[in-house]
């Protein structure tokens, strides 16, 4: 991907001023309207890009549904998109991951969030004019990062694939995939910038958890509903990890054995 997966607050401000990017706010509509938003941003709430018909709450909505959401919001598929939220980028990351799966290759997150933005940049409460856009569906990449339950079952038997559980300690203790290493997604968040940590800091966290730092390491991420794993996915990809996959259904779809530990 030539477009950066993570853009600093200042980089987003510069690119937005130059009209080089399209901004998508994935917060709730009341937050977007009442609290304000980045100037020019359109609102596509998080629940809109999940499959409402699926029994598994982390399932992606489908390429046609996602393209329709962007079209109704006035987003052009050919122009770079930057998404943000006010939760360190975890909901925005889910949007970006969805876009990547469906073939949008110029997409990234505000590396921080709305709170970080408004420390030094203006906010807006006006809703921009939205004209429905046209365009065909992008071509998905030849290798999707999504793995199925059957694939997970097969990979668990292999020793060269590292499974990472991005949930909290109590969740992990209650039950996790056999052999999975716990890496709470928040451990990769910088509390000051509210965005992701630097490459060196991320490497230090990985080493602390005995997670290989070789960029070709096969990794499968999971959580409960494929939200937290999305943030970790983007951070790992942004520092050069090449073989990161996600278990979309996560533990909401898993029906195999789980390991338990003391919390």
Automatic annotation (TrEMBL):
Keywords: Repeat. InterPro entries: Rhodanese-like_dom, Rhodanese-like_dom_sf, Thiosulfate_sulfurtransferase, Thiosulphate_STrfase_CS. Pfam families: Rhodanese. SMART domains: RHOD. The keyword Repeat applies. GO terms for molecular function: thiosulfate-cyanide sulfurtransferase activity. Residues 17-122, 157-260 form the Rhodanese domain. Residues 121-133 have a biased composition (Basic and acidic residues). Residues 120-147 are annotated as: Disordered. PROSITE patterns: RHODANESE_1, RHODANESE_3. This is Sulfurtransferase. It comes from Natronocalculus amylovorans.
């Amino acid at each position: 991907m030539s477009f950066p997966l993570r853009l600093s607050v200042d980089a987003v401000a510069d690119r937005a001023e130059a009209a080089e990017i399209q901004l998508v706010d994935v917060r709730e509509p009341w937050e977007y309207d009442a609290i304000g938003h980045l100037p020019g941003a359109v609102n596509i709430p998080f629940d809109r890009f999940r499959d409402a018909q699926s029994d598994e709450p982390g399932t992606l909505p489908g390429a046609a549904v996602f393209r329709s959401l962007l079209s109704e919001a006035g987003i052009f598929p050919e122009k770079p998109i930057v998404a943000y939220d006010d939760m360190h980028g975890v909901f925005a990351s889910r949007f970006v991951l969805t876009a990547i799966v469906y073939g949008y290759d110029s997409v990234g997150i505000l590396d921080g969030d709305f709170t970080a933005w408004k420390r030094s940049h203006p906010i807006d409460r006006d809703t921009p004019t939205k004209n429905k856009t046209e365009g065909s569906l992008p071509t998905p990449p030849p290798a999707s990062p999504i793995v199925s339950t059957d694939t997970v079952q097969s990979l668990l038997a292999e020793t060269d694939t590292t499974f990472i559980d991005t949930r909290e300690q109590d969740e992990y203790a209650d039950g996790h995939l056999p052999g999975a290493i716990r890496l709470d997604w928040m451990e990769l968040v910088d509390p000051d910038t509210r965005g992701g940590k630097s490459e060196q800091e991320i490497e230090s966290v990985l080493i602390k958890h005995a997670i290989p730092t070789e960029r070709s390491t096969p990794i499968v991420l999971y959580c409960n509903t494929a939200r937290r794993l999305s943030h970790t996915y983007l951070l790992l990809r942004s520092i050069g990890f090449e073989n990161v996959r996600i278990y979309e259904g996560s533990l909401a779809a898993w029906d195999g054995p789980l390991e338990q530990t003391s919390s």
